[in-house]
């Protein structure tokens, strides 16, 4: 769905957000959004690593047989 936006759509979204939030709030919102995405990626990576460790622990006893 978001892959069909294109450059004109992004410009329109930025213009509307600039009008709604104003030029002073927009950098704060962008920074908060970036931090949220970074934290989501870190958490996702951590969960995937934990799952991989659990899978490896379950496989090792079976490999000894």
Radius of gyration: 21 Å
* Secondary-structure element string: HH
Distance between the termini: 49 Å
Helix content: over 70%
- Class by alpha and beta content: mainly alpha
What is the mean predicted local confidence, pLDDT?
85
Beta-strand residue percentage: under 5%
The helix count comes to 2
Shape: elongated
Unreliable parts: none
The main pleated sheet reads as:
none
Number of strands: 0
Topology:
Elements: H1 6-21, H2 26-64
Describe this structure in words.
The chain is mainly alpha-helical. The protein contains 2 helices and no strands. The longest helix has 39 residues, at 26-64. The relative contact order is 0.06. The mean pLDDT is 85.
Task: Sum this structure up briefly.
The chain contains 2 helices and no strands. The protein has helices at 6-21, 26-64.
Offer a few descriptive terms.
65 residues
């Amino acid at each position: 769905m978001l892959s069909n936006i294109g450059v004109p759509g992004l410009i329109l979204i930025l213009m509307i957000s600039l009008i709604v939030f104003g030029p002073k709030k927009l950098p704060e919102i962008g920074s908060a959004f970036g931090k949220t995405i970074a934290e989501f990626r870190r958490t996702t990576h951590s969960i995937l690593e934990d799952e991989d460790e659990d899978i490896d622990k379950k496989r090792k006893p079976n490999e000894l047989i």
